[in-house]
Specification:
The protein is an all-alpha fold. The protein has helices at about 5-50, 55, 60-65, 75-85, 95-105.
């Protein structure tokens, strides 16, 4: 092999390694961002609603919701979702995240 071929192969391998590292960093950042958003939602809810009667009354419904992967939606849980979203309008959390946060209280 000529020196140019070896140099070209080395260059391609280094670029491929950099691309894989960049891909890994982007994927890791996306996963960490999603976990951080979920954690932020949980901490916002738990600090604000620990003693809230509407939210506390929805714990059993939240357990059913989480256990059934969203298939069972009780009236108390729906009421808690509305109450939480009225109290924290900037909160961007899914119903599943809210139900898990209610269980974490």
């Amino acid at each position: 092999m000529s020196r140019y071929h070896l140099f070209g192969a080395a260059l391609l391998l280094s670029l491929a390694g950099a691309a894989n590292a960049t891909s890994f960093v982007v994927t890791t950042d996306a996963v960490v961002g999603a976990v951080a958003a979920s954690t932020d939602a949980t901490s916002d809810i738990s600090s604000s609603f620990r003693d809230d009667k509407i939210v506390q009354a929805a714990r059993d419904d939240a357990a059913s919701f989480v256990g059934s992967e969203g298939a069972i939606r009780g009236a108390k849980l729906e009421s808690a979702f509305v109450h939480i979203r009225q109290q924290l309008p900037a909160l961007q959390a899914s119903d599943a995240q809210l139900a898990r946060a209610i269980l974490a209280l």
